[in-house]
């Protein structure tokens, strides 16, 4: 319901804002032309332009001369200070998120995987491949490896929109105490480009996580992350704690 004394263009702004958040418009497809928006909302061009100005001011859209007006790609910023869960982080930010199970297999560790997971060659390993999305946009492809010796059975059907860590805590009493992560640039494979809806060359990051429970490795995850939609932030502190010198 319109708010009294509120500019009409703000009602148009609210509706377009809702459509953007719901993924009706994505960053690869231009918004409808101004004349089409005028006809749809039954308002003047100046009213539509007022709504578009507000969207641009708030960083939600961008105009490309000769091509049209596009939704601005929303970048997820991840602080690398403490142990974090992708699902929990997006929940806390109020960002819509989704997850698709691409594949699940029980595999035998080859030499390379056995070295990564510090286990004997041939060990039974759960491999879970997931496509993670935020605001309806593909964000990362995750390959998670879990030792069957610690997790006897994984119900992949229960995981599309659930936190894997919460599932493992609930079912197996998992209590991870620390993790190590490495980051490096990578070119996505043809299959990863397809899953990530990458139609032009973009940088990706390979994020490898090694998670431990009482100093025993219980999870190894490789994530191929779109570099244009996800950034990692680290605080570097130059303060040092020097012992106080008491005058004598």
Structural summary, described in words:
The chain has 248 residues and is α+β, with helices and mostly antiparallel strands. It folds into two domains: 8-71, Orthogonal Bundle (Arc Repressor Mutant, subunit A), CATH 1.10.10.10; 76-233, Chorismate lyase (3-Layer(aba) Sandwich). Helices cover 26% and strands 32% of the residues. The chain contains seven helices and ten strands. The strands form three sheets. It has a six-stranded antiparallel beta sheet. Strands 1-2 form a two-stranded antiparallel ribbon. Strands 3-10 form a two-stranded parallel sheet. α1 crosses α3 (45-57) and α2 crosses α3. It is elongated and about 70 Å long. The model has no long low-confidence stretch (mean pLDDT 83). Residues 6-74 form the HTH gntR-type domain.
Compose a concise summary of this entry.
The protein is built from 7 helices and 10 strands. By secondary structure, it is of the alpha+beta class. It folds into 2 domains: 8-71, Arc Repressor Mutant, subunit A (Orthogonal Bundle); 76-233, Chorismate lyase-like (Chorismate lyase, 3-Layer(aba) Sandwich), CATH 3.40.1410.
